Structure formats: structure tokens, C-alpha cells
């Protein structure tokens, strides 16, 4: 049994990666570990910085001015006309153009082409080169070039020593999309370690990765962690309950759904029905019926033949026969179904409301039932207990005419006749 909401998982995974407009500003590296800061400074000095040629520098300055005035098209046209000669000038111009393309809709491939040239030149200052690697990785991921994205993310980490949790999250996302589910777990765990404020997305990838490998117990543990870290999120409570159901841990499934219900997290018909189902599965039909009844009345569970008859059956299982009779009658009226009126009659007969039972059985016959003989037998029984011998005898004679009940009705007929005679009634 696999009661899981993988549509929800897919939706959450899609939200794990968010691309905005890429600015041309220099990146900051606030996520470099303190014991690596000295090494980063050494690398910056070692790499140094170069100065643009005079002619290119003036054009770049003019392009920056246009860009700052939000005249992106004009700035881009100016840059595209440039024909830099030196390796550094070429790399700088390519990075500038690549960054601009990255911020334009539908220009990711052009951005990647320019940024690759800038990266391959290996001429840019430390921060610019690191930013180029990271942007290349992000754009590759956006374009679903997952293997290439991983290459650039790893280059970025090796070059910058930056431990950005979002980078590890996106690496995990790429591996998941490549169906390398086991490999996706490690960077997701690293992202969890690095995020100062808990982020749900790496937990989701871990859960989904285990699920795709059919490791349902591990997937369940991953959702347990989500509930622990994000207890205010309703979706994780219901997801956890569903995972418990999928592993047939119905007791914990019930306790989870109960807690979710008490916190007001069950908001859909399906969720409330799951809670009711779990009560029944755990041998608590009365609570199951109470939940169903409450939410049929509130309108959360649609009133239908199915919902009303299930509620009636649940009350029957709880031995609340009067309530069961009430809802079998409602279901019968809703669907104009004789079989349901027959069930109503049986419930009333069980609590010795014999006259009411006879009315229900007669209504069942009027609406139509598959086995009339059974209903005639029940009518006879109801009249018998009321010592209404003639009516009982009439009903049993009708049952004797039905193939399925002829034999049993014949023995009943003799017993009814004897009982009537003892009561002074001649049939």
C-alpha cells in the first residue's frame, strides 16, 4: 500500500530552485569557513587584478552608465560592437555581456556561451572568476544541463572555498533530476548543516530520493525530521501520516493524523477520510463514525450515497445500531436504493424496534432488492417478536415462494404456526 502524495513532492522539488534576475555586481563570499579566509586572501593576491585597455575601458564605463539607467538594450548593443584584443579585455567583456544576457528572458544559452569564454580565459580577478563559475552552474541547471551544472558547482567550490548552502542544495537537485538518488542525499545533508535558518528543500530531496529508491522506511524517517524541524507546516504532518500508512504502521499513522487534526491541519475531504479510515483500521469505529458525521454535516465531506452508507456501516461496526439505521435511511433516500432500506431494517430489528423495521423492509421491497426472500424472512421475524402471528405467517409464506429462502422459510412457517396456536390463534 503506497499512500503518498508524490505530486506534492514534485511541486516542492520544483520550488527548490529559484532563479531571479542576475545582477552584474560582484558576488560576496560570506560562506567561506573562518579557517579558510586566509587561504582565500592568498588566492586573491596571487591572482591579482588587471586593468582594462584605455579604449575598452571607456566603452565599458559608458555601457555601465547606460546599464545603471536601465537602458539594458543600448548597453548590450554597445558591448556587442566591441572587439577587444587582449585576453583580459576579452574575458571581461564576455563576462559583462554574459551577465546581461543572464538577466534577460530567453537568453540563457547566449549567456552561457559568453560566460564559458570568460571562464576558459582564466584571466578575471578572484571574485569575478568565482562569480562566473557560479552563474554558469546556475544557468546550466536552469537549462536542465544537470551534468554540466555539477561540473561548474564543483569548480566554484574548489576555486572559491565558499560553502554556500544553496550551492549544495542545487547540486543535490541536479543529481536528483539525473535520477542519481543515492548521490543526491549527501549534498542535501551538507546543505542542511550549512543553512543558518532551516530550509525545507534539502529535507524534501532526501525524502524523495529515498522514496524513488523504494526505501520507504528511510523516506518516512526523513518526513519525521521535517515534522520535527517544521512543526508548524501542516503538509508534513499529513505526509508523515500517509507514509506510516504506506508502511502499514497504522498505529503511528493514527497518532500523527490525530495530532494534525487537533492542530487544525486536516483541511480536505481526503485528509479527514484518512483519519476516519485509521480509526477504523485501529479498531476504533465509533470515533471514525464521529469524524465522518461531523464533517458530512459541516459539508467538508460531500453528502452522497457512498459517504452516507460508509458512515452507516461504521456506526454498525461500532454497534451503534440506531445511528446506523438513521444513516442507512438517509443513504437510501439519497439514492432511492432498496438495499440500503433493507440495511436500515436490519439495524432496527437488532435493537428490537420491530414496527419501524417492518416499515423499512416494506420500503426496501417497494424500491427493489436483489433477494426478496431475505426481506420477507426479516419481516416475518419482526412480526413474530411482536406476536403478530397472522402478519408473520403471511410474510413467511411469501419467503417460501422465493428459491433462495424456500427451505429455511418452511421450517420457520411451522414454528410460527405452533407459536400462534399456543397463543390461541388459528392460522
UniProtKB/TrEMBL annotation:
TPR repeats: 165-198
InterPro entries hit by this protein: TPR-like_helical_dom_sf, TPR_rpt
Electron transport keyword on record: no
UniProt keyword terms in alphabetical order: Repeat, Signal, TPR repeat
Stretch forming the signal peptide: 1-30
Family matches, as Pfam families: ANAPC3
Organism superkingdom: Bacteria
Record protein name field: Tetratricopeptide repeat protein
Amino acid at each position: 500500500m503506497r499512500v503518498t502524495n508524490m505530486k506534492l513532492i514534485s511541486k516542492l522539488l520544483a520550488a527548490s530552485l529559484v532563479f531571479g534576475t542576475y545582477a552584474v555586481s560582484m558576488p560576496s563570499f560570506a560562506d567561506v569557513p573562518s579557517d579558510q579566509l586566509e587561504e582565500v586572501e592568498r588566492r586573491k593576491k596571487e591572482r591579482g587584478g588587471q586593468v582594462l585597455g584605455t579604449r575598452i575601458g571607456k566603452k565599458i564605463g559608458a555601457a555601465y552608465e547606460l546599464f545603471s539607467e536601465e537602458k539594458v538594450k543600448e548597453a548590450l548593443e554597445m558591448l556587442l560592437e566591441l572587439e577587444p584584443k587582449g585576453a583580459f579585455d576579452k574575458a571581461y567583456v564576455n563576462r559583462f555581456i554574459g551577465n546581461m544576457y543572464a538577466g534577460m528572458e530567453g537568453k540563457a544559452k547566449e549567456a552561457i556561451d559568453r560566460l564559458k569564454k570568460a571562464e576558459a580565459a582564466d584571466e578575471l580577478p578572484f571574485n569575478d572568476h568565482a562569480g562566473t563559475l557560479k552563474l554558469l552552474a546556475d544557468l546550466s541547471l536552469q537549462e536542465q544541463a544537470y551534468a554540466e551544472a555539477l561540473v561548474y558547482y564543483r569548480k566554484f567550490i574548489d576555486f572559491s572555498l565558499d560553502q554556500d548552502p544553496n550551492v549544495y542544495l542545487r547540486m543535490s537537485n541536479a543529481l536528483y533530476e539525473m535520477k542519481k538518488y543515492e548521490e543526491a542525499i549527501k549534498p542535501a545533508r551538507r546543505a542542511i548543516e550549512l543553512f543558518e535558518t532551516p530550509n525545507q528543500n534539502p529535507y524534501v530531496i532526501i525524502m524523495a530520493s529515498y522514496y524513488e529508491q523504494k526505501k520507504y522506511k528511510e523516506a518516512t524517517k526523513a518526513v519525521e525530521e521535517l515534522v520535527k524541524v517544521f512543526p508548524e507546516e501542516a503538509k508534513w504532518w499529513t505526509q508523515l501520516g500517509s507514509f506510516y500508512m504506506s508502511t502499514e504502521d497504522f498505529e503511528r499513522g493514527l497518532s500523527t493524523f490525530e495530532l494534525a487534526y487537533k492542530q487544525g491541519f486536516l483541511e480536505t475531504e481526503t485528509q479527514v477520510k484518512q483519519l476516519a479510515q485509521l480509526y477504523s483500521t485501529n479498531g476504533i469505529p465509533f470515533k471514525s463514525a464521529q469524524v465522518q458525521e461531523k464533517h458530512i454535516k459541516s459539508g467538508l465531506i460531500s453528502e452522497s450515497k457512498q459517504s452516507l452508507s460508509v458512515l452507516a456501516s461504521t456506526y454498525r461496526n461500532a454497534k451503534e445500531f440506531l445511528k446506523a439505521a438513521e444513516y442507512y435511511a438517509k443513504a437510501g433516500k439519497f439514492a432511492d436504493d432498496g438495499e440500503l432500506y433493507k440495511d436500515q431494517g436490519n439495524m432496527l430489528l437488532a435493537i428490537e424496534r420491530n414496527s419501524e423495521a417492518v416499515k423499512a423492509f416494506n420500503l426496501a421491497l417497494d424500491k427493489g432488492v436483489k433477494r426478496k426472500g431475505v426481506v420477507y424472512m426479516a419481516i416475518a421475524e419482526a412480526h413474530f417478536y411482536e406476536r403478530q402471528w397472522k402478519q408473520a405467517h403471511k410474510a413467511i409464506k411469501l419467503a417460501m415462494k422465493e428459491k433462495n429462502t424456500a427451505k429455511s422459510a418452511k421450517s420457520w412457517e411451522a414454528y410460527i404456526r405452533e407459536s400462534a396456536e399456543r397463543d390461541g390463534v388459528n392460522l
